[in-house]
Design brief:
Blueprint lengths: L2 E7 L6 H14 L4 E4 L2 E3 L3 E3 L5 E3 H10 L10 E5 L4 E6 L2 E7 H7 L4 H14 L2 E5 L17 H7 L3 E6 L5 H10 L3 H4 L2 E9 L3 H15 L3 E6 L26 E6 L4 E2 L5 H4 L4 E6 L2 H4 L4 E4 L1 E2 L2 H11 L1 H10 L4 E4 L1 H5 L3 E3 L12 E3 L6 E18 L13 E14 L5 E7 L2 E7 L1 E3 L2 E4 L10 H13 L11 H19 L2 H10 L2
Parallel strand pairs: 1-9, 1-10, 2-9, 3-6, 10-11, 11-12, 13-15, 13-16, 16-18, 18-26, 19-21
Antiparallel strand pairs: 4-5, 6-7, 7-8, 14-17, 19-20, 21-22, 21-23, 23-24, 25-26
Pfam family, one: CbiA
GO molecular function: ABC-type vitamin B12 transporter activity; catalytic activity
Protein name: Cobyric acid synthase
Length: about 500
């Protein structure tokens, strides 16, 4: 059976996912076969496995850091919010429908056997399992029948490292308050404290570290600095969605429309790794400015987000960009919005009474939502592409599709791909293009080697600026370097001897 270590936090966005990813990388470097695990994840960023199963993208990133193939067992329950009161419930990679929060709270205890089976499967295949909690274990109104924090720690008999976020202030109160709200058997599972996102002189912090150790009788396992690594954020609390500052005219500027129900915003992170590219997320007309390209991302509620675009004035602003020949690129739900119409006769995504809405009319496509979700990995190549991005013609593409609905087109596709489905390979057409407007269903479209760089070069040429770009840039290699960088920073700030002792002796 695998050894375990669990990372819990004093609050959401304390840095659990990043520290878990870093530990996955460290254990891999030290020769162990390691897997990430999160019993229940709530996020709109998801990933499709080779088997066509859906899981949280954070665990896919952690698996990548561990050097292993992502599988649905690493995240047996995924909740994708549909509104403030409910979510789509995905179990072992397959949606079982939408539930209100109260419904799910009563239902979740029936999922314990699924969690146990998934964890047992991994524990037989790996040496170490790095388990991530969710939010805080001290939410006393939610502790009954907990399946993701201390409830999971007990299921896995896992020692816990508790992470506090000093950047948001009150880290000692966070740590102390969290521990003191736990039951005695839960407190006993916490074997180490971590202060995360520290800036400044550590010697000034040390008296507080000594005091918290004495107050709680739990050792501090490390003080982690605010790390300079470029890795995907788990959800919309991450810093990648915060920036709206505009750049100067010597850089390429890409604006991503931050819709209320934005999903898989990590599709565009590759652009932030390219020098002299400014990637901005905007949710107001006043912040849109004059970008060199605008992107419409995926959405969990395509119809409602399209109506929001219309009401906010951003649709009109995007149409004005198009009139000025500024390229527009839609991914998944964004691709659907760019079409002529979207129909949702079964209200599978939209909760409005509207069964059909007018699209933005920029692409000659029509979308109708059905009851079945498309979940598949695809690979292929771009067709004969026109417009500003004609250099994409023939380039290889790869990624995955997660969407409701089927889209019909009256023009050639953007790409010809093969999809993996039930062990077979099926040919299909994807997306389309008209003028400088492009659309695709493929998440990860920009990640394939050469795609993002070709787009940036075309935008720079149109803007009339000279950019020296690395033609050999490989985003996968870049991410590997970032994982190694994360591991190196954690090795210097965490007491790894202590952590190994906790895992192997469970002291």
């Amino acid at each position: 059976m695998a050894k375990t270590i669990m990372i819990q936090g004093t609050m959401s966005n304390a840095g659990k996912s990043l520290i878990a990813a870093g530990l996955c990388r460290i254990f891999k470097q030290d020769g162990y076969r390691v897997a990430p695990f999160k019993s229940q994840n709530m996020a709109l960023n998801s990933y499709i496995t080779e088997e066509g199963l859906e899981m949280g993208r954070a665990q896919a990133v952690q698996a990548e850091a561990a050097g292993v193939k992502p599988e649905a067992a690493m995240n047996p329950i995924l909740l994708k919010p549909t509104n403030d009161m409910g979510a789509q419930v995905i179990v072992n990679g397959i949606s079982i429908g939408n539930m209100l929060a109260r419904e799910y709270f009563a239902y979740k205890k029936t999922l314990v056997p699924e969690i146990e089976r998934a964890f047992h499967k991994l524990s037989q295949e790996y040496d170490i399992i790095v388990i991530e909690g969710a939010g805080s274990p001290a939410e006393i109104n939610l502790k009954q029948d907990d399946i993701v924090n201390m409830g999971m720690a007990k299921m896995a008999d896992a020692p816990v490292l508790l992470v506090g976020d000093i950047d948001r202030g009150g880290v000692f109160a966070q740590l102390y308050g969290t521990v003191m709200l736990l039951e005695p058997d839960e407190k006993a599972l916490i074997k180490g404290l971590i202060v995360n996102k520290f800036r400044g002189d550590k010697t000034i912090l040390e008296p507080g570290l000594d005091m918290i150790e004495k107050q709680l009788s739990i050792p501090v396992a490390g003080v982690v600095p605010y790390m300079d690594v470029d890795l995907e954020d788990e959800d919309s609390l991450g810093n990648h969605l915060a920036g709206t500052a505009r750049t100067d005219r010597t850089a390429v500027e890409i604006a991503v429309i931050r819709m209320p129900r934005i999903s898989n915003f990590t599709d565009f992170q590759v652009f932030s790794s390219i020098p002299r590219v400014c990637l901005r997320y905007v949710d107001r007309v006043s912040d849109l400015g004059n970008p060199d390209m605008a992107i419409l991302p995926g959405s969990k509620n395509t119809v409602e987000d399209l109506l929001w675009l219309r009401e906010s004035g951003l649709e009109a602003a995007i149409l004005k960009l198009k009139a000025r020949e500024i390229p527009i690129f839609g991914i998944c739900g964004g691709f659907q919005m760019l079409g002529e119409s979207i129909s949702d006769p079964f209200q599978v995504e939209s909760e409005t009474a509207v069964s059909s809405v007018r699209g933005m009319g920029l692409l000659p496509v029509r979308t109708v939502f059905g009851k079945e979700k498309t979940r598949t990995r695809v690979s292929g190549s771009c067709s004969s592409v026109g417009g500003i991005f004609e250099e994409l013609s023939g380039m290889e593409v790869e990624g995955y599709e997660i969407h409701m609905g089927e889209t019909t087109r009256s023009v050639p596709p953007l790409a010809y791909v093969m999809e993996s489905q039930s062990g077979s390979r099926l040919a299909k057409m994807d997306g389309c293009q008209r003028g400088n407007v492009y659309g695709t269903y493929i998440h990860g479209f920009f990640d394939k080697e050469g795609i993002a760089m070709t787009i940036v070069k075309s935008l720079a040429e149109k803007k009339g600026i000279s950019m020296e770009l690395d033609d050999g840039f490989n985003y996968q290699e870049y991410k590997e370097e970032q994982y190694d960088r994360l591991a190196a920073q954690l090795r210097t700030s965490l007491d790894m001897d202590q952590i190994y002792g906790i895992m192997f002796r469970k002291q």
